[in-house]
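Working notes for the structural subgroup meeting. M.R. asked for a predicted model of this chain before we commit to crystallization trials. I am recording the input and output together here so anyone reviewing the notebook later can reproduce the run.

Input as submitted:
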Amino acid sequence: AFAVPDSMSVHDAAGIPIEFGTADDCLFEFGGLQAGETVLIQAGASGVGLAAIQLAKQAGASMVLATASSDDRLDRLRDYGLDHGINYSNTDVAAQVMRLTEGKGVNLVVDSVGGKTLEGSIASLAYRGRVSWVGRAGREEQAPEIWPIMMKNGSIHGVFLGAELAMNPVRTRTMIEGLIARIAAGQLTVVTDKVFPLAEAEAAHRYIESRQAFGRVLLVP
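Returned structure, recorded in token form:
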């Protein structure tokens, strides 16, 4: 458990450890993002995606790119630090990344989708680039072809915040407490799309699966 500042609502506090903590680990602890590097955030309109965009921009990333399923959602992401948006519904993501980076690719990709999206993440990498793979939201069982990442001397790092909380609790708690303080100070923004009562859990899941959500979807008792 984490202390919630008096100025912060319970709704805002609810997802900070998972969303912002996961994004922070993907970018820095495991992703090794440095100021001046380029980063691609897959599923930028998700809770983790929105957190990662803000954190990467504030850390001095030279270019923050993100994917989403509609141009409207990409336009909204610009308010949180997005430099270039890619609509994965009608665009080859890797080809667009290469165009925007003048053929170099990005230094880091945060991928919470997996499957075919993970293959696109690998194809988007610069030489010696890194992928922080944090989930399988796409529910695909397909394993990616890993030969391309070897040819780039790149790396894929699995990221699971739960394991870090168990194995490195002091570091992880300190990191999350720092994020809570930054959010309370207005330096970072928690974006909640909709709040559903627990009795409407099925409707909440349908809404998430519709890919209309922008930010977090909460269930409350």
